[in-house]
Amino acid sequence: MLPDAEAAILAALSSPGGETLAVAGELLPGVDRPGEYLTRHLAALLDFYAGAAHHELAVVVWWD
To answer: What is the spatial distance between Cα 48 and Cα 50, in angstroms, rounded to a whole number?
Structure first.
C-alpha cells in the first residue's frame, strides 16, 4: 500500500462525533464493522492503482 494511506483512510473515517461511521453503517446495512470494511476495501483500491502505476498501466473509470 502507499505510505500513510491506511492512516489517511482511518483519519477520513474518524469524525469527532462518529457521524462518518454512523452514515457508513446506514449505507452498508449488512456490514457489522463499516470502518474496517471500508478501510480494507479502500486499501485494496489503493494497492490496485499503485500496482497499475508501477507497471505503467492506465486505469479507465467510466462513471455514468
So the answer is: 6
Sign of CA dihedral 18, 30, 59, 54: positive
**Contacts of residue 12, Cβ cutoff 8 Å, sequence gap at least 6:** 20
CA 10-7-24 angle, to 5 degrees, is 15
Query: What H or E segment, with its residue span, contains residue 39?
Result: helix 34-54
pTM confidence score: 0.63
Q: Where are the domains of the chain?
A: 5-54
User: Could you list the pLDDT tens digit for every one of the 64 residues in the chain?
Assistant: 555 766 777 777 777 777 888 888 888 889 888 888 888 888 888 888 888 889 999 878 888 7
